[in-house]
Recover the amino acids of this structure.
């Protein structure tokens, strides 16, 4: 899916309803966590990623951005260390075009991101990673470096953005990663198979699910 100005403007504006304890990484910068100009860098990271994906043949839809992943990379299921870190963490297609945005001295690395990219062969062509709630909900008692499941009302209030993504993806195969994503798709009338989310010990079941669901078609999806 190439960058779509209208869709991205909607994303960058942030969630409707202004839900509490939600970071919009494409607009927000937090002192002590973000480098100067971090929001702009994350927008550029996402736009460069969408160009790299090209026409989507597979949409993997997760729940929400995590603080070790998309909160600082700008890309679902992707860590800034995978974009701007050193080998062997850096993905083979990442380079100077993608930038780190946090003040973390070693950059953030998300276990789920490692599992997802390994299952996909570390290549983004044709595969769009996105989230039902494409911002970062954090725990109000635990602070901005934490994760929580987005409230159902917040997901519902922003289904218009997911609908735009689905429209742009055309005939791509849609797969939910976790029940939150599956329920969001169902509210839009889309029936999709559901993979176990790789977080909290679900990595092996997720990877096996990718192999079982896509099988020999995975190569055609990616290449």
């Amino acid at each position: 899916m190439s960058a779509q100005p209208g869709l991205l403007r909607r994303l960058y504006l942030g969630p409707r309803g202004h839900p509490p304890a939600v970071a919009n990484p494409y607009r927000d910068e937090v002192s002590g966590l973000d480098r100067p100009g971090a929001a702009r860098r994350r927008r550029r990271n996402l736009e460069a990623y969408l160009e790299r994906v090209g026409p989507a043949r597979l949409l993997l839809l997760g729940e929400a951005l995590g603080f070790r992943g998309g909160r600082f990379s700008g890309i679902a299921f992707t860590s800034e260390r995978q974009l701007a870190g050193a080998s062997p963490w850096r993905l083979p297609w990442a380079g100077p075009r993608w930038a780190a945005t946090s003040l973390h001295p070693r950059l953030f690395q998300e276990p789920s991101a490692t599992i997802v990219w390994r299952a996909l062969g570390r290549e983004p062509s044709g595969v769009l990673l996105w989230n039902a709630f494409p911002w970062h909900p954090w725990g109000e008692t635990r602070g901005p470096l934490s994760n929580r499941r987005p409230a159902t009302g917040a997901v519902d209030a922003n289904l218009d953005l997911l609908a735009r993504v689905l429209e742009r993806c055309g005939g791509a195969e849609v797969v939910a990663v976790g029940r939150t994503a599956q329920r969001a798709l169902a509210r839009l009338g889309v029936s999709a198979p559901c993979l176990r989310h790789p977080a909290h010990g679900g990595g092996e079941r997720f990877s096996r699910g990718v192999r079982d669901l896509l099988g020999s078609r995975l190569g055609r999806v990616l290449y």
Observations:
- The mean pLDDT is 92.
- The chain has one domain: 5-222.
